[in-house]
Design brief:
Helix content: over 70%
Strand content: under 5%
Distance between the termini: 66 Å
Largest sheet: none
Radius of gyration: 26 Å
Oligomer: single chain
Number of domains: 1
Structural class: mainly alpha
């Protein structure tokens, strides 16, 4: 029957698994909320863009908590009507902030994914060391003497990989989704600025 040995590595791996799971769930929930806000805001924008009015758009952006609304609100706080270069610079700044929000807490998920295998490897080394200590103390007394250390070594390695693989996959998926979301924001913002005559 499987059980994780509760040595320091085993305890750390349990904490790793809880942290990774919590981060993945939090990011999924954040993306779900962002998509819902984006869909609602996009529906409102269709009507406003039919006959663009800078003041009405600015008010709509300021009231919105959708990512596009936040980006546009940041840019339109400044007078961009006479300077396309300023518009693009401000848009880059706003998208940088938005990208940080999309990728929030992902460095921590990457750290967990990157270090979990090493923590498992440390458990492997400690398990093999325990095996040799048992042999030194008890001699070659059959499989039971060395089985605990070998089991510890194999289990911590396996658990480290079980944590690292889904965490790494999730990190890459969230990173790609964040990059795509920023590109979509840039496209939508450019469309609005063209409609306003700022680009």
């Amino acid at each position: 029957m499987y059980r994780l040995y509760l040595d320091p590595c085993g305890i750390a791996l349990i904490l790793y698994s809880v942290a990774a799971f919590a981060l993945i769930v939090e990011r999924l929930w954040a993306w779900r909320r962002a998509k819902a806000r984006t869909r609602a805001f996009a529906a409102d924008m269709e009507g406003l863009l039919a006959s663009p009015d800078r003041q009405k758009l600015k008010e709509a952006f300021e009231k919105s908590d959708a990512p596009l609304g936040q980006v546009m609100s940041y840019v339109l706080k400044h007078d961009t009507s006479q300077s396309p270069e300023t518009t693009l610079l401000l848009l880059d700044d706003a998208l940088e902030v938005a990208g940080g929000q999309f990728k929030r807490r992902l460095p921590l998920l990457a750290a967990l994914a990157g270090t979990a295998p090493f923590l498992g490897l440390l458990g492997t080394v400690l398990g093999i060391m325990n095996t040799f200590f048992s042999i030194v103390q008890k001699g070659f007394g059959g499989p039971t003497v060395i089985s605990a250390g070998i089991a510890q070594a194999l289990e911590t390695t396996a658990v480290g990989l079980v944590i690292a693989i889904p965490a790494y996959v999730a990190y890459n998926l969230f990173t790609t989704a964040g990059d795509n979301a920023v590109r979509d924001l840039r496209t939508q913002a450019n469309r609005i600025f063209v409609a306003l005559g700022d680009l």
